[in-house]
Design a protein that fits this description.
By secondary structure, the chain is mostly helical. It has helices at about 1-50, 55-60, 80-110, 110-125, 130-145, 155-180, 185-195, 200-210, 210-225, 230-235, 255-260, 270-300. The termini are far apart.
Length: about 300
C-alpha cells in the first residue's frame, strides 16, 4: 500500500514539473522564430542604411539602370525587380494550373491506393536540389525551346520560369489537396444527392469551400518563387535590363546577390552594400506577401 502511494506521489510530482516546464520550453521555441526574424532584419538593416546614405530611396526605387559594378554607375533596382517578377509570373502561370489539377485529382478522383503512390512522387519534386533544376533548365529545357523559338538565347527568362514552376508545383498541389480534404464529406454527399457530377462537385462545391487554403498555397508558392536563387542564377543570365521578352537574358535580385557575394566586392564599399539593399527589398516583398496570405486565409476561411 505504501509503495503504491509512493508511486502515485511520484507520478503527481512528475506531472506538476512537466506542467511547469513545458510552457516555458514551448515559449522558448516560439522565441527562436522571433529572434531569427529580428536577427535577419538587424543583419540587413545596418548596411542598407549605409547604402541609402549615398543613394536616395527615390533613385533606388525609380531608377531604370542597374550598373553598380561598372562605370557609369547607376543604382536603379527596377531592372532587377522586373526580371524577378517576370520569372515568377512565368513560374506561376506554369505551376498553378498543374498544381490545382493535381490537387483536384488526388482529392476527388484518385483511389486511396493511387493517392498513396502519386502524392509522394509529386512531393519528391520538392526535394530536388534547385541547382539540379537550374542545369536541367540550361541543358534540357532551353535546347528544346530553341527548336520552337529561333531567337531564344542560351540564358533566358522562359526556361528559368518553367523550372521554377516545376519547383513550386509540389507546394501548390500538396497544400491545396490538404485544404480540399478538409472539406466535410457531407457537402459532397449532398451535392451528389442533388444530381451533381463529380467534376461539378470538385469545382463548384469543394474548390470554393477550400478557397482560403488554396489562395494561401498560391501566395506562399509565389513568395517561394520570388526568393529562388540557384535556378535563375544558372539559367536566367546576368543582364539587368527592362525587357519583357521572356526569350532574352535577364537578372533577378537573388542572382545579383550571388554575383556580388562570389565576386571581389570589398566589405564596406557601396558595391558590397548594394547586396543588402537588394536583400532588404526582397525581404520586404516576401514579408508583405506572407501577411497577405494570412489575411486572405482569414477572410475566406470556412468553418464547419
Amino acid at each position: 500500500m505504501m509503495q503504491e502511494q509512493g508511486i502515485e506521489m511520484f507520478k503527481d510530482k512528475r506531472k506538476s514539473i512537466m506542467n511547469w516546464l513545458m510552457p516555458k520550453l514551448l515559449f522558448l521555441c516560439a522565441l527562436v522564430s522571433i529572434g531569427t526574424t529580428v536577427g535577419i532584419v538587424w543583419t540587413l538593416f545596418g548596411e542598407t542604411v549605409a547604402f541609402f546614405k549615398q543613394v536616395t530611396v527615390f533613385d533606388f526605387i525609380t531608377g531604370t539602370q542597374w550598373t553598380p559594378l561598372i562605370d557609369p554607375r547607376s543604382y536603379g533596382v527596377l531592372p532587377l525587380l522586373l526580371g524577378t517578377f517576370q520569372v515568377t509570373l512565368i513560374a506561376c502561370l506554369f505551376a498553378f494550373p498543374i498544381g490545382i489539377a493535381s490537387a483536384i485529382y488526388l482529392s476527388e478522383y484518385a483511389p486511396n491506393r493511387v493517392r498513396k503512390v502519386v502524392k509522394p512522387i509529386l512531393e519528391v519534386l520538392a526535394g530536388i536540389p534547385t541547382i539540379v533544376l537550374g542545369y536541367f533548365a540550361l541543358f534540357f529545357v532551353t535546347p528544346q525551346l530553341q527548336k520552337i523559338f529561333d531567337t531564344m538565347g542560351i540564358f533566358n527568362a522562359l526556361s528559368a520560369g518553367i523550372c521554377v514552376g516545376i519547383m513550386i508545383i509540389p507546394m501548390i498541389s500538396s497544400l491545396s489537396e490538404d485544404a480540399m480534404n478538409a472539406v466535410p464529406k457531407k457537402l459532397r454527399e449532398g451535392a451528389f444527392a442533388l444530381g451533381a457530377t463529380r467534376f461539378e462537385v470538385a469545382t463548384q462545391i469543394v474548390f470554393p469551400a477550400a478557397l482560403s487554403g488554396i489562395i494561401a498555397s498560391f501566395v506562399l508558392a509565389f513568395s517561394r518563387a520570388i526568393g529562388e536563387t540557384m535556378i535563375v542564377t544558372v539559367s536566367a543570365g546576368a543582364t539587368p535590363k527592362i525587357d519583357i521578352n521572356p526569350l532574352d537574358s535577364i537578372q533577378t535580385m537573388t542572382a545579383y546577390i550571388v554575383q556580388v557575394i562570389t565576386g571581389d566586392a570589398a566589405h564596406g564599399t557601396i558595391e558590397y552594400q548594394t547586396v543588402y539593399a537588394v536583400g532588404m527589398t526582397l525581404f520586404i516583398i516576401t514579408f508583405l506577401l506572407n501577411i497577405v496570405a494570412l489575411l486572405i486565409a482569414r477572410r475566406y476561411r470556412e468553418e464547419y
